[in-house]
Amino acid sequence: MSLLVKKSHTDARTAVIEAAGVAVAKGLFSEEPLPGFNTEVPADRKNGDVSTNAAMVWAKALRMPPRKIAETIAGNIQLADTLFERVEVAGPGFINFYYGSSFYSAIIEDILAKGSGYGRSDFGKGKKINVEFVSANPTGPMHMGNARGGALGDCLAAVLDFAGYEVSREFYINDAGNQIDKFALSLDIRYRQIYEGENAPELPEDSYHGADITQRAKEFAGVYGDSFISKPEEERRKALVDFALPKNIQAMKDNLTKYRIEYDTWFHESTLHSDGEIAEIIDIIKSRNLAYEKDGALWYKNSEVLAGRLAKEGKTPADIEKLGLKDEVLIRQNGNPTYFAADIAYHRNKFARGFDRAIDIWGADHHGHVARMKGALDAIGLDGDKLDIVLMQLVNLTRDGQVVKMSKRTGKAITLTDLLEEIPIDAVRFLFNMREPGSQMDFDLDLAVEQSSENPVYYCQYAHARICSILKKLESEGIVSKPCSPETLSLLTAPEERELILHLSSLTDEIVTAAKNYDPAKITRYAINLSSLFHKFYNACRVNCGDENLTQARLALCVCVKTVLANVLTMFKITVPEYMEKGSD
């Protein structure tokens, strides 16, 4: 909540309490201890800018109808030195406050003073948050889920940063375990097929069949020729992985940099193996009597741990039994740790690095892993509730109203690389944050390249460019923005002006709410609404109106909208143009 909005709520509470004191002194209320009450912003601004339920809450103590209490308070309230100009009683006893010109003037002054810092707050109080996202398997190209996860994760991290958290972006590289063994096998067979032809083995069905595997095998052959054909299989496969994996990881880094995502940490799963952290996790779980051996493997008592966790949450034994909880393998029969064991060690490592909270962005198909992971953290002595999982639904790409699954260029499944080659990055980052993470979304490829008000990112960028054009045109006429007094700014009384300023005033609250809910889509919607309200204002209120003071006040309002649009777009790493050709409407 911005300081001004927070002050308005304090003003409302203080005014109600003081009015109640006056009513007691006049004998209108009995002198009774009164319970606390709430102030809130009504959903419909027709019901005031700030509203309170004090009259309903006090009805029992004062033994009076709420409506009568509200009317008595309204009749004795003093609004001098507050941000309000009037108060009204509504319904069963709501007391509704309406902002005066001092509030609107103060918002304009606040934005002009803070500039690029407007919208920031100390809500997060500097707490350290780790946001891990994308974390694509390095054995192949990144897909549409990674594309949505990248935009979502990076913009969520930006929102958290604006809300006052200390944020670290992280990518977890799965460079160990079964998928790397499968990667090695796939590369090996493709390499052998180059030199052994029909004598080479066929690629197993559950291997990696992508063209990227064949390409890496050819690149290896281009450097080493057939010199590794006669080498032992283990040596050959290790050489192939050592050659191909860094190239794949670098390709991911290059694509994500193009996507305007810069990570603070690239964490290699392999370090958990080499540093002994997985072995430590196994020892901890064993020491807590939460592991047992069966069929040559080591199992974790997942069902026992989760049953205990769910019981604390109020679930009955019958409810828990219906869930069919199962135990998890930690060490396979071949002696290799599972991905789950590595994941526990990885999350323990995050908290050991001093993060107050960890946020993982996963595909919705991982929903069954959420409780297991939180429970495992509890099991090793950490707090599983400090891990938050944002589950993200799939994306459908559409063109001409039809779902598109194949790239025009390659005829294969569309990858992040394909998308970034076809669609402007501004549009990709903005449109992927138009819906809540848990919502299935259709990404309209036609809309994303359209230069019209139908395209949301174009609409917001055009609003900013339009203001720049207005300011430039007025400057050519000798009219430049000058400092305005509160009295001058108080001239902004048109409904379109006040509605626009009210929206500007809510940016800090919107960012805090988006941070609380892990939902950057609130900010893209904020920007779209701001652009719409600006166009509405501009069409209704002529900036150069012939009244010098009102012109200056409207110029100041234009500068504020320009500043806030720039802040929001910059937060999401979206281009902030100063000039654009007007597209079709």
Write the layout of secondary structure elements.
Blueprint: H1 3-25, E1 39-40, E2 50-52, H2 54-62, H3 66-76, E3 84-90, E4 94-99, H4 101-114, E5 128-132, H5 144-162, E6 166-173, H6 178-196, H7 211-224, H8 233-258, E7 265-268, H9 269-274, H10 277-287, E8 291-294, E9 297-300, H11 302-312, H12 317-322, E10 328-331, H13 339-352, E11 357-363, H14 367-379, E12 387-392, E13 395-399, E14 402-404, H15 416-422, H16 425-431, E15 441-444, H17 445-449, H18 456-476, H19 486-489, H20 495-505, H21 507-517, H22 521-540, H23 548-571
Parallel strand pairs: 5-6, 5-11, 6-7, 11-12, 13-15
Antiparallel strand pairs: 1-2, 2-4, 3-4, 8-9, 9-10, 13-14
Helix pairs in contact: 1-3, 2-3, 5-21, 6-7, 6-8, 10-13, 11-14, 18-22, 18-23, 20-22, 21-22, 22-23
Strand order of the largest sheet: 7-6-5-11-12
- Count up the helices: 23
Extract low-pLDDT stretches.
Answer: none
* Beta-strand residue percentage: 5-15%
Largest sheet: 5 strands, parallel
- The total count of strands amounts to 15
Oligomer kind: single chain
Q: Measured on Cα atoms, how large is the radius of gyration?
A: 30 Å
Instruction: Give the end-to-end Cα distance, rounded to a whole number of Å.
Output: 35 Å
**Helix share, percent:** 40-55%
What's the overall average pLDDT, rounded? 94
Class inferred from helices and paired strands:
alpha/beta
Shape summary: flat
What does this structure look like?
By secondary structure, the protein is of the alpha/beta class. Helices cover 52% and strands 12% of the residues. The protein has 23 helices and 15 strands. It has helices at 3-25, 54-62, 66-76, 101-114, 144-162, 178-196, 211-224, 233-258, 269-274, 277-287, 302-312, 317-322, 339-352, 367-379, 416-422, 425-431, 445-449, 456-476, 486-489, 495-505, 507-517, 521-540, 548-571, and strands spanning 39-40, 50-52, 84-90, 94-99, 128-132, 166-173, 265-268, 291-294, 297-300, 328-331, 357-363, 387-392, 395-399, 402-404, 441-444. The chain has a 5-stranded parallel β-sheet, sandwiched between helices. Strands 1-2-4-3 form a 4-stranded antiparallel β-sheet. A 3-stranded antiparallel β-sheet has the order 8-9-10. Strand 13 (395-399) and strand 14 form a beta hairpin. The two termini are 35 Å apart.
